[in-house]
Amino acid sequence: MTNKYFLLFLSFILIVPASFASDPLSSDGDDGYKLWLKYEAVANAAVKAEYLRYTSFIGESSKGEVAQSASRELHTGLKSLLGKNVPVLNSFGGKSGGIILKLESGTASSQQEEGYQIKLSGTNVVVSSNSERGILYGTFALLRHMQMQLPVKGLNLTSNPRVRYRMLNHWDNPDGTIERGYAGASLWKWYELPERVDPRYQDYARANASLGINGTVLNNVNASARFMSQEYIVKVAAIANVMRKYGIKTYLSVYFAAPKTLGGLPTSDPLDPKVRAWWAEKVAQIYKEIPDFGGFLVKANSEGEPGPQDYGRSHADGANMLAEAFKPYDGIVVWRAFVYKADPNADRFKAAYEEFVPLDGKFDPKVIVQVKNGPIDFQPREPFSPLFGNMPKTPLGMEFQITQEYLGFATHAVYEAPIFKECLDSDTYVNGAGSTVAKVVDGSLHGYTRTLMAGVANTGNARNWTGHPLAQANWYAFGRLSWDHQLSSEQIAREWTALTLTRNQKAGESIVRLMSRSREIYVDYNTPLGLSRPWMGVHFAPEPWQNKGSRPDWTAVYYHRADSVGLGFDRTESGSNALTQYRPQVQQQWNNPDKTALPYLLWFHHIRWDKKLSTGRTLWDELCTRLYTGADSVTWMQQQWDLAKTHLDPQVYTDVAQRLQVQHREAIWWRDSWVLYLQTFAKQPITAGFEPPKQTLDEVKKSVNVYLIR
Ligand code: GCW
User: Fold this and answer.
1) Looking at the structure, do residues 466 and 550 belong to the same domain, yes or no?
2) In this structure, what are the phi and psi dihedrals at residue 119, rounded to the nearest 5 degrees?
3) What are the backbone dihedrals phi and psi of residue 250, each rounded to the nearest 5 degrees, phi first?
4) Residues 497, 491: Cα–Cα separation, whole Å
5) Taking CA atoms, which of 166, 341, 384, 426 is between 20 and 30 Å from 34?
6) What angle do CA 670, 676, 682 make, to 5 degrees?
């Protein structure tokens, strides 16, 4: 056999067929399934010629399954980008013009365990790392580089993750529904597992690994004890077997009362020796099936879920009991700080801080406390949670929400990177200026190494994974930021757009413009000037008038506090005084209504309707202006989208264009609900220059009620 034919032969036996097995034919148009891993053929002749010079072989130095995923992905990618079958070789010493995936032994260079380096060495491109996972991440980075058609010449890239545990949280239920999921049913087909392993699990793993995500919590934090049964552990193990190949560890949410409901014990008291033994045995049972199991995520004593307080014990008692069960293993316990008691006089804003700060230093080192970005609940805009910086002896992980629970579900286009960045870049001032939330989360401020960033997933079994095509960007942005929180929102938007939608520069620019402004536009028509929670029920339809609930903080009026005098929640000394949970420098930012930045104004102050704001307008006029311009700006978004039309796949173009139409209609609905309702307190006409709503308040209420009918 000549060399050439031998290589061809090798490429056949060494290469596993390309993934995305269930791809539609290209004539079906772009259905979004391939996400940002399209690997479209390189059209530019010069770029292609350069790439061809470096792709005569793929050299792999490890046979481990994660490294194998890297070479398989590279092979798939190159085949599609360059139309060529690049052979994968184990022995390539002295060969030139290829891509070498090199596992370095020992503690080399500036790389951490999962970091990677990509550089030119002679005429080879070398992707090196101390770990197979690093090789996989480096491979995806190289493919990203090539998908963006950037030159190989001068390539020299070192990248390390800033956070250790980068994970998705799925709020998926055993019956296939997803709490706050808007993209179809769960990806996990529990009734088919463990025998049938849906090929989609692998594509899910690839997509995550391409961003550096290394953990996934498969089930809802409002957890079913079923996941602790042997029957389900085996099902979970079948998914974990797929995840492992892509460097992803599998985690489970646990139901704290499982010892009682599943184990038949008389109690689930974390200090009861039998309960402790039950969990230890349970964890051992899981590790038997899943040797690299990641750990538990726990929602306890929150919104009716059971927890240690049911037995007079603390969150630390509960978390530490579970941590003890993980002692023999590598796994961790992620304990959520999303708690708020039903106290009619309390400010929910203060609840997590009040319960958790006194526990600082009491958690086992295997515990990470996971904190939502804001003190309330994933609002379109929130100040950062005052827990960040105030628990220096406890690793605090970040919980972002990718699924658009309060951001218009999968209908409204809202690019979330600016929300994530706004929180990460906030200064807590705990160790002087520059003590950003990001530095708390990445461990650099308080010196802990168990660091975590979690995102509540927006995936479902919709063909395009996320329902709204642009919502894919939110999954992408979360993943990229969990790896490197210093990337800018715009940079990520550019990257995602070029990989996913179009490489045409002008078209790309108008999409990036649309994305970059989308969050502010949403805030303007939905919750301007620091309003929050104007919806109850399904968290979609506007209901600022909603004033009945089983507890006061489950009404809308609790949050906005509209009355004949003005609007907003006073959290200064004269109100709930929640501001004292922040350092003085932060308090100064927000305790004076004249100096508070307008986006946060009503978070902290009750403002008179006729008060003149820094814009020169009164509160009422400012509200009208924002609500109206917000709704109008959706037409601007439509224009930006249309500017890109000729450079977009028609299927994707139409899908987004139609969703933008819905968004526009609903933005007007939100605007009208707010202005008509608030007008009953402010008693003022709609600001001059804007057309009063065509409907009455009663009519709007009726249209909202339709959404609330079960
Ligand atoms: O935002 C609220 C949601 C609940 C969710 C809860 C939580 C999973 O409305 O659906 O429950 O937060 O984060 O625990």
Assistant:
1) no
2) -155, 165
3) -100, 135
4) 10
5) 166
6) 125
Sorted by sequence, the CB contacts under 8 Å of residue 272 that are 6+ apart come out as: 265
pLDDT tens column, 100-129: 999 997 655 566 899 999 999 999 999 999
Beta carbons of 375 and 347 less than 8 angstroms apart:
no
Q: 123 in a domain, yes or no?
A: yes
* pLDDT tens-digit readout, 7-49: 444 443 333 333 433 333 333 578 999 999 999 999 999 999 9
Shortest-distance atom of ligand 1 to CA 171: 8
Nearest-CA neighbor of 172 among 158, 189, 160, 156? 189
Q: What is the pLDDT of residue 109?
A: 57
Q: At what angle do helices 65-82 and 45-53 cross, to 10 degrees?
A: 140
Q: Is residue 188 located within the same domain as residue 252? A: yes
Co-location of 332 and 474 in the same domain: yes
Picking from 426, 459, 483, the residue at the C-terminal end of a domain is 483
Ligand 1 center to 607 CA (angstroms)? 30
Q: What is the pLDDT of residue 343?
A: 86
Provide the residue range defining the domain that includes 62. 45-159
- Identify whether 576 is part of a domain: no
Helix (H) / strand (E) containing 20: none
Domain shared by 138 and 71, yes or no: yes
- Do the domain assignments include residue 216? yes
- Establish whether 303 is a catalytic residue: yes
Residue 3 has pLDDT above 80, yes or no: no
Q: What is the CATH classification number for the domain harbouring 669? A: 3.90.1330.10
Beta carbons within 8 Å of 288's beta carbon, 6+ residues apart: none
DSSP β-bridge partners for residue 368: 334
> Active site includes 377?
yes
pLDDT tens digits for range 233-279: 999 999 999 999 999 999 999 999 999 999 999 999 999 999 999 99
583 three-state secondary structure: coil
Q: Are 454 and 168 in contact (CB under 8 A)?
A: yes
Considering the domain architecture, whether residues 389 and 424 belong to the same structural domain is answered as: yes
Q: Where do the DSSP E strands lie in 395-472?
A: 396-401, 452-456
Nearest CA to ligand 1 atom 11: 222
What is the pLDDT, as a whole number, of residue 708?
81
- What distance in Å separates the CA atoms of residue 602 and residue 561, rounded to the nearest whole number? 10
Same domain for 391 and 472, yes or no, is yes
Q: Which helix (H) or strand (E) holds 318?
A: helix 315-326
Domain stops at, among 483, 513, 545: 483
Distance (Å) from CA 652 to ligand 1 centroid: 31
Q: What is the mean pLDDT of residues 50-63?
A: 95
CB–CB of 302/255 below 8 Å? no
Q: Which tens digits make up the pLDDT trace of 672-702?
A: 999 999 999 999 999 999 999 999 999 999 9
Structural domain count of the chain: 3
Cβ–Cβ contacts within 10 Å for residue 311, how many? 16
- Reported as type and span, the H/E element at residue 540 is none
CA of 222 to the centre of ligand 1 (A): 8
pLDDT single digits (tens) 186-213: 999 999 999 999 999 999 999 999 999 9
> Any idea what the CATH number is for the domain that residue 110 is in?
3.30.379.10
CA–CA separation, 556 and 567 (whole Å): 13
Tell me whether residue 245 is in a domain: yes
256 shares a domain with 222: yes
Whether the ω angle into residue 194 lies within 30 degrees of 0, i.e. cis, is: yes
Atom of ligand 1 nearest to the CA of 372: 13
Q: Which run of H or E residues covers position 249?
A: strand 249-254
Residue 565 CA to residue 573 CA, distance in Å, equals 19
Residue ranges around ligand 1 (CB below 6 Å):
171, 179-180, 221-222, 299, 303, 338, 377-378, 405
Joined tokens for residue 120: 């030119």
Residues 208 and 191 reside in one and the same domain: yes
Residue 370: closest CA among 457, 453, 254: 453
Q: Which atom of ligand 1 is nearest to the CA of 180?
A: 10
Query: Which residue, judged by its Cα, is nearest atom 1 of ligand 1?
Result: 377
